[in-house]
Amino acid sequence: QLQLDASGGGLVQPGESLRLSCTASGESIASFHIAWFRQAPGKGREGVLCLAKNGINGTASDSAKDRFTASRDKAKNAVYLQMNRLNSEDTGVYYCARSLGWCSLVVEDMDRWGQGTQVTVSS
């Protein structure tokens, strides 16, 4: 059974970069699409970027499309989210999830969620 674990969050200053990891166990990372979400305090989960199972970046939010990139490492059974030029609006808990059927950023299309990792962007 698939399990996902997001990690790599922390405190960074505006303009800096950060790379998050999503490690999978139980199933191969190449067998499904992985979507990244984030949730700010008091808000719902927002889709950020989906990485298709073929390794190609798919749907991205407007805020992420020019700054964030997803990738994968089959040997480590992991996917990554490279976040550049971070700003305060990027603050939140970041999650990775498995998307069924297609590379989606809709919460209802996900069937597995990892534990979130906190990203805080502050001076």
Count the beta strands: 11
Cα(first) to Cα(last) distance is 41 Å
- Taken in chain order, the helices and strands follow as EEEEEEEEEEE
Please compute the radius of gyration using only Cα atoms.
13 Å
Query: Tell me about the biggest sheet?
Result: 7 strands, mixed
Enumerate the spans where pLDDT stays under 50 for 5 or more consecutive residues: none
In terms of DSSP E residues, the strand content is: over 45%
Mean pLDDT level: 96
Structural class: mainly beta
Shape designation:
globular
User: Which bin fits the share of residues in helices?
Assistant: under 10%
How many individual helices? 0
Structure, explained:
The strands form 2 sheets. Strands 2, 4, 5, 6, 9, 10 and 11 form a 7-stranded mixed sheet that branches. Strands 1-3-8-7 form a 4-stranded antiparallel sheet, with no helix packed on it. It is mainly beta. It is 0% helix and 50% strand. It has strands spanning 3-7, 11-12, 18-25, 33-39, 46-51, 57-60, 68-73, 78-83, 92-99, 110-113, 117-121. The protein is built from no helices and 11 strands. It is globular.
